Amino acid sequence: MSADPLNSASQPAVEVRRSARRRRTVSAYREGDRTVVMIPARMSTDEERRWVGVMLDKLAAQESKRMLGDAELAERAARLSEQYLGGRARPHSVRWVTNQNTRWGSCTPAEGSIRLSHRLRGMPEYVIDYVLLHELAHLLVPGHGSRFWQLLDAYPRTERARGFLEGVVAADRLPHLPAAREEQDE
């Protein structure tokens, strides 16, 4: 057993368990407030680090696919506000919407309402958390100036989530060639 060196105070605990009987497979599961990652004993520290990241992302994607409802989304927003914004951002409503196809989220500070695009469903948990935090920060700071970005600096996966979303947007803009592939198979 070893503690994951990637852990920080703001991330959930990760426990890596090595097994001599485990030859090739890696698995992970949640155990209370920690994540347990099972790996082969022969694995190097670099391989361990890589596989812990892969498995954390897989678990997050599986959990976010469970389709959080509006109530769970509101609870999540409250936890994120408490953890990263000192509880200062208090939305009156947080909900999924299907009419946002060019934005990931939106916020109306005067009403205290936050809306997240349905397109986020099924994305990794840290991405949804980032978008929620982004909109929560708008309850405190209206624009995208330096004060706004200082608030988001507290979230350790801001850059990673932004990169993920940029990749999704870029992939959507790529020409899709399924017809060309079908023709090649004939």
From TrEMBL:
Residues 72-161 form the YgjP-like metallopeptidase domain. Residues 1-11 have a biased composition (Polar residues). It comes from the Bacteria. Pfam families: YgjP-like. GO terms for molecular function: hydrolase activity. The keyword Hydrolase applies. Residues 1-21 are annotated as: Disordered. Keywords: Hydrolase. This is Metal-dependent hydrolase.
